[in-house]
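Bumping my old thread because nobody answered last time. Still need a sequence for this structure:
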C-alpha cells in the first residue's frame, strides 16, 4: 500500500474525484467538502490547514480517500479494500496526528476506531449512527401550500439562533466545543450571505428552516433542517425539505442527499415520505483518554 499526503487542493481534487464519483451518494460529503475548499481554503478553520490523503494498492490503484478539516473529525471514503484503513491508521499514528474522531461508512470506521484505540491507548465511543438518503423524485403530496422563500439579511438573528439550537439538539451532550460552535455559526452566516438558507413562513412568521449544503456533480445535500419545538408536529419540516428538494431537482440536479440520525425515527420517517431512500449507514466515533 502507498499512502500520500497532498498539499495542493486543485491537484488533489482532480486526482480523487473520479474515484469518489464511483460511489457518489456514499461519498457526497467528501466531494462537497472538496468543492467548498476549492472556493475557500480556510472556510472550516483559519488557524489550521486541512489534511488530504490518498491510499493506493500495490498495483497503484486508488482505493481510499481521507480528509480532515480541523477542528472536525477524520473523514474516510467508501472503499472495498479494508486493508487501506490499516495503512491510514498506522501512518496517522506514526506522524503523531491528533484527531478527535472518525466519520465514514460503518465497516471502515469500526476498523479504524479499533486499531486507533489500540495503537493510541485511547477509549472510544459511538457518538452518532447516521444514514445517508438519496432522493430522485419528490412525492408531490408533501409539497404543501405555505410560503417558501430565501432567508434574507433581515432574518439573520433568528437564523443564527435557530442554527445554534439545531446544533445543540443534534449533537450529543458534551460534544459542542466552542470551536465547533463558532465554525458552525460562521458557516451558517456564510450560507445566509450566499443565498443557501431557506425558510417556511406561516402568517409571516418563520416556522422552519433548511439549508443547501455540499454540491456534487449530480446532486446536492440538504441539511440544517430545524423547526422550533413549539411549531413541531404540523408538517413544517416535511414541507420545507420537500420544497427545497424539488427546487434542487428543478434546477437540473439528478439527486438530493441528506444525513439522518438513526436514533431519531421521526425524521427518518419524514424523509422517506418525501421520497428519500436509504443508501448506506455512516458512523461517527469519538476518541477520549483512557481512564
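Sorry it took so long. Here it is:
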Amino acid at each position: 500500500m502507498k499512502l500520500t499526503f497532498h498539499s495542493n487542493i486543485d491537484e488533489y481534487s482532480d486526482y480523487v474525484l473520479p474515484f469518489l464519483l464511483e460511489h457518489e451518494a456514499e461519498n457526497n460529503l467528501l466531494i462537497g467538502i472538496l468543492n467548498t475548499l476549492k472556493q475557500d481554503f480556510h472556510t472550516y478553520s483559519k488557524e489550521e490547514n486541512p489534511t488530504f490523503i490518498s491510499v493506493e494498492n500495490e498495483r497503484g490503484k486508488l482505493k481510499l480517500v481521507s480528509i480532515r478539516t480541523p477542528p472536525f473529525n477524520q473523514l474516510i471514503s467508501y472503499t472495498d479494500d479494508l486493508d487501506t484503513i490499516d495503512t491510514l491508521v498506522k501512518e496517522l499514528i506514526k506522524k503523531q496526528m491528533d484527531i478527535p474522531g472518525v466519520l465514514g461508512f460503518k465497516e471502515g470506521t469500526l476498523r479504524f476506531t479499533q486499531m486507533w484505540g489500540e495503537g493510541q491507548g485511547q477509549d472510544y465511543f459511538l457518538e452518532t449512527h447516521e444514514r445517508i438518503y438519496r432522493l430522485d423524485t419528490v412525492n408531490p403530496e408533501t409539497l404543501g401550500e405555505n410560503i417558501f422563500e430565501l432567508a434574507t439579511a433581515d432574518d439573520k438573528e433568528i437564523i443564527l439562533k435557530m442554527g445554534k439550537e439545531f446544533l445543540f439538539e443534534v449533537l450529543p451532550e458534551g460534544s459542542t466545543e466552542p470551536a465547533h460552535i463558532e465554525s458552525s455559526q460562521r458557516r451558517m452566516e456564510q450560507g445566509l450571505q450566499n443565498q443557501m438558507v431557506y425558510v417556511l413562513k406561516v402568517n409571516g412568521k418563520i416556522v422552519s428552516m433548511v439549508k443547501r449544503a455540499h454540491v456534487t456533480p449530480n446532486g446536492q445535500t440538504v441539511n440544517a433542517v430545524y423547526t422550533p419545538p413549539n411549531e413541531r408536529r404540523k408538517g413544517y419540516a416535511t414541507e420545507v425539505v420537500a420544497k427545497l428538494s424539488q427546487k434542487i431537482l428543478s434546477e437540473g440536479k439528478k439527486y438530493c442527499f441528506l444525513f439522518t440520525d438513526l436514533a431519531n425515527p421521526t425524521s427518518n420517517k419524514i424523509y422517506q415520505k418525501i421520497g428519500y431512500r436509504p443508501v448506506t449507514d455512516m458512523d461517527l466515533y469519538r476518541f477520549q483518554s483512557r481512564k
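The helical segments are 9-21, 28-39, 83-94, 106-120, 156-170, 178-193, 236-250, 265-274. Let me know if any region looks off to you.
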